[in-house]
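Task 17 of the worksheet. Students: predict the tertiary structure of the chain below and write it out as structure tokens. Keep your answer in the requested format; marks are given for formatting as well as content.
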Amino acid sequence: MHIQKGDTEAEILDKGAYLYSFKVKSKDILLEGRERQTRGGMALLIPFANRIKGGEYYWRGKKYELPKNSEGNAIHGLVRDKMWDVESLKSGEVTLSLYLKDPGYPSPLFIKVKYSLDSSSLTTAISVKNEGEEAPLVVGAHPYFIVKGNWRIFPEKAKRLIMKDKIPTGEMEDFTITQGEYDDCFLLKGNVTLISDYSKVTIEKENMDFIQIYTGQPSAVAVEPMSGAPDAFHNGIGLITLKEGETATFTFKISVRL
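Model answer:
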């Protein structure tokens, strides 16, 4: 699905409600979309973001098992391979929905995502309604921003989660973010800005106090807004407990200056 408002345009796929491309003045802001959604574009990560250690967890005394990657962990949620329904499509916005029911998760969820464009910006609004029993929740997104030359992130000062084998230990440390190689999670409330010779991108986020920075693809930096930490189903960092019938909402706006 193609949406456009003025010089700003985006392409969204119904599989995974995946943001395949986002352009401003015909210039790609995101790394080209890929068949593997976490290697380009912007994937949605629901009902957990990043990793779940060992691909299993206990919730209210019951054990749940999730698909595992080559590391032996579950990764990046349960919605990327699902076909979403298109609820509405207008020139500058699209809304998709998904009823998610999975044996690896305690409750069915009704999820909506709305992508809307404005001048040089894209807003993503996500709502998650619990259609069953109390359940744990983390929501995230995985945008790969194209960079050129040196890049910087502001604010530079943040709390970094200390990791062991890509899983948080539960401890944090003061950290200054400089250009380098990352697959790290930071507690960083408020707006986050990524600047390089290519563009200036600002993420204004609501109910998403964490970011994962990942530099595993050439000429791009993934700056991933998340409501909670990796492995939150175990460590509880930023974890939301969604009660029966409750809806949680998350919003972030990507503004671009070329």
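Marker's comment: The mean pLDDT is 97. The longest helix spans residues 232-235.
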